[in-house]
Model the fold of this input.
Amino acid sequence: MVDKNISISNLIFFMKNMLSEVFKRDIKVRLRPGFFPFVEPGFELDISCAICGGDGCPSCKNSGWLELCPCGMIHPEVLKAGGIDPEEYTGFAFGLGLTRLAMMKYGVKDIRDLNSGSLKCLSQFTEDK
Ligand SMILES: [Zn+2]
Done:
């Protein structure tokens, strides 16, 4: 998202609402500092663990949180490279991987199951789950 006056607040609001729609319930999010070369500042976005409800389990390493995706404010040099004046415009970006999202949405306890190549594993996912 790029526009005038876009801030980290917009990033948090967007991610929280987008994820709450995907999961069909209120999702808690938190940001931790992280380095990614195309954003400044950069963050790791965590969500409350959907498997244990935030109490702690092996999937979230007993932290109650699960790292979901990198995100941040678009680096001014990236905006310049795109022909956008970084003095006038700001923006945010994120890279949401489908495996983590599917893990949380469908309660897959081990993310490696999704890359196992097993049709038995993949066939358990339907639209209504
Ligand atoms: Zn958990």
